[in-house]
Amino acid sequence: MQSLMDQSVAPIQRMIAEGREAEAVGALRNLIQQGPALGDGWIKVLAIAQSLGDEDAVQWGARQAFIELDGRPDAAVSLSESLARIGDTAEALMVAKQATVRFPDHAGLSCHYGTKLSQAGKFEAAEAELRRCLSL
User: Fold this and answer.
1) 0.70 cut: is pTM over it?
2) Which is deepest, 5, 18, 30, 65, by most CB within 10 Å?
């Protein structure tokens, strides 16, 4: 018996394999907008959206993952990265900062936040966060 994630994603993967990428993008966006409970499957949905180059779907999917995975560190990083990729630096920084507040002892999140600060040109704050990362 296929999981909900497999049932939801398999047709999209088939479309991609058959070269029907425009149709796959539409199906992927529909899946994301429906927002079914995919759990860890959201990470796979994000990978498909990224492979199709659909930044809107990446952003929507990352938000769904962040909500459904209850702000889990990997979902926070995915959302922050997708926001940064589309140029929403302020929102990417906010998500990364919120994640470090929620998980203060998570070195990976601290490092991610420090990197995002550096990329935003906030070098003093980045240095402090990266030093904190190294101390964890």
Assistant:
1) no
2) 65
Identify whether the C-beta of residue 55 lies closer than 8 Å to the C-beta of residue 46: no
Cα 59 to chain centroid distance, Å, stands at 7
Residue that is written with structure tokens 């999209």 in the block: 12
Ordered alpha helix ranges (H), 18-72: 21-34, 41-51, 55-68
Q: Determine what percent of the chain falls in helix, strand and coil, rounding each to the nearest 5.
A: 80, 0, 20
User: Are residues 78 and 108 in contact, defined by beta-carbon separation less than 8 angstroms?
Assistant: no
Alpha carbons within 13 A on the beta-carbon side of 87: 1
